[in-house]
Amino acid sequence: MARAALVAALAVAAVLLTGAPGAAGAKRSKDKDAARQEPPAQRRKSLSGSAAGEAAAAAAGLVPVVPKVGITNLCDSFHIRTLNVYCHCSSMQLANATEASCWVFGKSENESAPIWDSFSSQPILETLKIHVREDSVHKFIPTRALSFLRKLKSFEIMYATIPELQPYAFANLTTLQELQLQRNQIITLKPRSFAWLPNLTMVNLGENQIAEVQREVFLGLPSLRRLFLDHNNITTLHDATFMHLSGLDELELNDNQLAVLTRETFSGLKMLRRLLLNNNKLRMLGDCTFCEMPHLTELYLNENGLQYLSVRAFEGLSRLTRLVLGDNNLQQLSPGSLNGLHHMRYLDLRNNELNTLPYETVKPLMDSFRNITSYFYIEGECVALLVAGRVSKCCRPPHARAHRGRARWSESARPAPEPPPPPAAPSRPPRGLGVVGCALRPGVPCRGRARPAPTVFPASAFGVPPSPRVRTRSKPTRQPT
């Protein structure tokens, strides 16, 4: 009897310690039922117990990013003297700031430092600026910090030392609109450095040290409108570099080392309107170089040392209104090289080596100079091509007064160094001529009025055309009594 009681007591103790199988099964079943009844967002959050799981869920938009327990407030960390990154925010309250400006002192924190996790304390930031002090060093884009800022619209980092941009450096931020990355000594852009940023409209990579731009650097950017790559060391643009930027409106490539451009260089830029290529090392332009940009309206090619233009160099640019070819080494423009430019309003050929400019070369532009103010610059002189009877300004030489408002006609493309003496009876300009201009030094103000619209544009007008005629009344001579 005593033995049986002992066995029963031991069995009860075992059940209390381990739990009955039936009870454990019932508890697991109850837990599963409760899990099924949980909302999907809460169930995903409970499954992502690690920090990486929470960050991934937040990046996918499944759960909102909330400040983690024990994380330092990004905007209230000035009392921590061991940090090398300090931020000033629009609000010091937790999860309340929309703007933050951060400064990097000394040697920046490494990529895994806790300071980057503190950005989770301000998850609604819309503007973030990071500036590196002159005597400090920062070598990377803080992708870890950006991953917590799901509402960020503008990001700027300047004066860093970033040798290369890594793929997906901007954490696939769906709300990001502007990126200011100038003056960071960037050399290399890895493929997909700018990828899957659907609302990005502007990228500024100016004043860096970029040497080449590879394919697929820019990918998944349907809203990008402005791209600045000026003041770098770019020598090579790979074919189809801009293939995925079909909505781009403005591209600045000025002040680089580009020597060769082909049609494939600009493949995909169907909507581009403004292209800056000035101050490069282009010596020639081949056939159909810009054919892939039918909507181009402004093209800047000055200060390149251009020596040769193919007759078909500007083919396909029927909407071009402004063409700047000044400060090059062009010796001639062949007839046909300006064909198809029916909307031209501004042509600059100053400071070249042009000896002659045949009428056949500019004949295709004559229709575009009707009923609108247009400008044609050549050899440092201002020639205002104006129609509709009057102008706002034209060129007037210093000696025009001696000619009673008329400048001397000349067939030479270059003005004489010394103005000639006024003729006794200056000849009348050709009837219907619509070119008003003069031989003057750069910087001389332009004044006067123009003649009526032209019906004929003679080749002699491309010499030194006259200043506007000013009618004067001769004063009668008094006779001695």
UniProtKB/TrEMBL annotation:
The keyword Signal applies. This is Connectin-like. The keyword Repeat applies. PROSITE patterns: LRR. Keywords: Leucine-rich repeat, Repeat, Signal. Residues 1-25 form the signal peptide. Residues 470-481 have a biased composition (Basic residues). The lineage of its organism: Eukaryota, Metazoa, Ecdysozoa, Arthropoda, Hexapoda. It comes from Megalurothrips usitatus (bean blossom thrips). SMART domains: LRR_TYP. It comes from the Eukaryota. InterPro entries: Leu-rich_rpt (IPR001611), Leu-rich_rpt_typical-subtyp (IPR003591), LRR_dom_sf (IPR032675), LRR_TM_domain-containing (IPR050541). Residues 23-50, 402-434, 449-481 are annotated as: Disordered. It holds the Pfam family LRR_8. GO terms for cellular component: plasma membrane. Residues 416-429 have a biased composition (Pro residues).
